[in-house]
Amino acid sequence: MTAASDLTVEEIPPIRKVEPAVLAVLADWTGVNLDSAEASAWERRAAETYPPWRRREWLIGRLTARAALSLRYGRRAGQAELVPDGVSGAPRVRGLRGVEVSLSHTGDRVACVVAPAGRQVGIDVEVRGRCDPELARRILGPGETIPAGLDPTVLWTLKEAAYKAVIGRWSGLRAYRVHWLPDGPAVSVPAGLRLPSRTFDWEGTVVALVGHEVHTTELTLLDPGARGTSLTEPKGQRI
Predict the structure, then answer these.
(1) Which residues contact 202 (CB under 8 A, 6 or more apart)?
(2) What is the helix (H) or strand (E) element at residue 146, kind and residue range?
(3) Helix (H, G, I), strand (E, B), or coil: what is residue 59?
């Protein structure tokens, strides 16, 4: 078993040499036994309050987030704990000031982004094809369309990531409008703010990163087990 603090960083140079303002981390925990993972006693107790099917998802999210904090801010930062915000339910870092975290899961895959406070960055990951036509109709805003040939899951992940970037200030996804621009999508929120975005294909899953500084965000692949993984950034709107 590989402990969370010893996760292998693949394909990207050591983060401390780059020191980006925003760091996004992807981790695939498929087949990894969590019994000896470096979860805190508080996290173990908290995980037990969830139904069995939810415990693993909750715990691997926290382990990935703490690994991301350690990579970006140093090993001691990796000891910080994530707690839900009392208003929005979004994850908040306890014991480390001036840092924001956005977190998403699908099965045993986790996507996490850490950034200085005020950067307004959100991340989302979903299985390709998971957004069916009915869901797509519910999240499309007035007059909004999906480009021909584009998996609606891309639209869904972009809107979910934007929702997290502004901490759910507008609850319905119809309020977030995706603009398909030549150099990539952007997402508008009701306050008139347009947030840049990036989308990635992660071996059958769609990853969306929305918010300030996303085009200078460093992406890191963590391999908790022995699985290889690849990440490609598409050109334009398609992934």
Answers:
(1) 26, 109, 125, 229, 230, 231
(2) none
(3) helix
Average pLDDT over residues 3-13: 34
pLDDT in tens, 84-98: 776 667 788 887 788
Residue 16 is predicted with a pLDDT of 41
Which residues pair with residue 109 across a beta bridge?
A: 28, 106
- The answer to whether 209 and 197 have CB atoms below 8 angstroms apart is yes
Rounded to two decimals, the pTM is 0.84
Residues sharing a CB contact under 8 Å with residue 166, sequence separation 6 or more, in sequence order: 120, 122, 189, 193
The amino acid that residue 102 corresponds to is S
pLDDT level of residue 39 (50, 70, 90 thresholds):
confident
Burial class for 55, CB neighbours closer than 10 Å (0-12, 13-18, 19+):
middle
Cβ 28 vs Cβ 109: under 8 Å: yes
